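Students often ask why we bother encoding 3D structure as a string. The short answer is that it lets us treat folding as translation between two languages. Here is a chain of 174 residues written in the first language.
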Amino acid sequence: ATAAGATSDVNYRLRNLPAPLKGSKQTRQATVGARYRTPLTARVTDLHGRPIDGAAVTFTVGRSAGGATASFPDGTTQATVSTGASGRAVAPALSANTTAGSFTVVAAMSGGTPIRFTLSNRAGAPASVVVGAATNQSLPAGSALPVRLAVTVTDANGNPVAGAIVVFSAPTSE
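And here it is in the second language, the structure alphabet:
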């Protein structure tokens, strides 16, 4: 900086600090093949908590080891959104793929600390029951089976459906 009549310059060293990034509710669930009902939202503020307008926030969708993920309306797994006057960046709607499981979406901006959202694709309605252990056992009436009966219940995409109610019934004799 200089001033009229001053004989020397004054130098300042400036350092840009990253703007804090905060997330909305950080867990979401949707049924496989369906849209997530609530969009992911990240808020950018300055160090005094005032919203920053026009900041670019990139949302990147991960994939679980089992293949569960989601995509934005254009079919991609990454979207960059600018914040509005409120400092909020709202990601485009996400649609779950057909694999059940949990995965992470990261919201990040240049120089800021990323935030993570945990999303879960839940299995759909029961569509199939497959016989498991103990098939074709026969014993006299009143005897206990040596191996417990077991089945696997899956949705239309082959995802196991946890908590499905299964009723076993004995054949009637005539």
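Translate back mentally: The first strand starts at residue 21 and ends at 23. Keep this in mind for the problem set.
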